[in-house]
Write a structure and sequence with these properties.
heterodimer, A: about 120 residues, mainly alpha, 3 helical TM bundles of succinate and fumarate reductases, two-stranded antiparallel sheet, 4 helices, B: mainly alpha, 5 helices, about 0% strand
């Protein structure tokens, strides 16, 4: 029986990472579906794929909205995955904290750039 | 007292260069570690990926610099090297996607037998490496 400190927090137990585990799988499914949608859009066009076809993939509002959601999902997916790598291999707390901060800055920066590109289309 | 058996080895300090290289991983182990490697690779190259997205989709003019990156290169980086990095990303995405779908399938159907682990790992490796070779040949203009 887990001891609860405060009203809700379970300090020990088997379910500590379940939320991130599930989030990683849900976002993975979303990214995979998005990949197949983009591929289908490209493969269903005839002729060589130039700028018009490629930019056309992201032209509609629903595609922009979906891409935005997938980008946010991708960001969280990458955060969980890369954090797992640091937690497995990097033991000194100071170095691990520095890597966590680097990961967040790196990912948030890339996410902001990608959203900017998407939004001005 | 005579020592009949060798003392059991203790792995308290696994050296990445002298110990890890002697391990023989099963195929599922290779899929697993490559899943991690490919994920980290895409994470580290993410600014390059966003740059590719930016230049390819923003305008006709930027699209020209996108295609030029694979021809004359970007700045001092030659085009063949850009192609090589792109090919590494193609492999990373294919491997990560296929290994990820294998994970999702195993989670959803509770397919956790040893034989399924081995055979599905084989499928992932054959597909990811095969598709990488096919797309790489196209990227480098072999057909």
């Amino acid at each position: 029986m887990a001891i609860n400190y405060g009203s809700r927090r379970v300090v020990a137990g088997a379910h500590y990472g379940t939320r991130d585990w599930l989030a990683q799988r849900v976002t993975a499914l979303l990214i995979a579906l998005f990949t197949f949608i983009v591929l289908a859009k490209l493969l269903l066009t005839s002729g060589p794929i130039g700028y018009e076809t490629w930019a056309g993939v992201f032209a509609s509002q629903w595609m922009k909205t979906l891409t935005f959601s997938v980008l946010v999902g991708l960001f969280y997916h990458a955060w969980v995955g890369v954090r797992d790598i640091w937690m497995d291999y990097v033991k000194p707390p100071g170095l691990r904290l520095a890597l966590h901060v680097f990961t967040i800055v790196w990912l948030v920066g890339c996410l902001g750039w990608a959203i900017q590109v998407l939004w001005r289309l | 007292m005579t020592q009949l058996k060798k003392p059991r080895p203790e792995f308290r300090n696994i050296n990445a260069f002298t110990d890890l290289t002697t391990y023989r991983l099963p195929l599922a182990g290779w899929v697993s570690i490559l899943h991690r490697v490919s994920g980290l690779l895409m994470f580290l190259l993410m600014p390059f990926i966003v740059w590719l997205f930016d230049t390819s989709v923003s305008s006709e003019i930027s699209f020209d610099s996108f295609t030029a990156a694979f021809g004359v290169g970007i700045g001092f980086v030659p085009g063949w090297f850009v192609k090589l990095v792109a090919l590494a990303l193609i492999w990373a995405y294919l491997h990560h996607l296929l290994a990820g779908l294998r994970h999702l399938y195993m989670d959803a159907t509770h397919s956790v037998t040893k034989s399924f682990g081995a055979s599905s790992a084989q499928v992932v490796l054959v597909l990811s490496i095969g598709l990488t070779l096919i797309l790489g040949a196209k990227l480098f203009g072999l057909y």
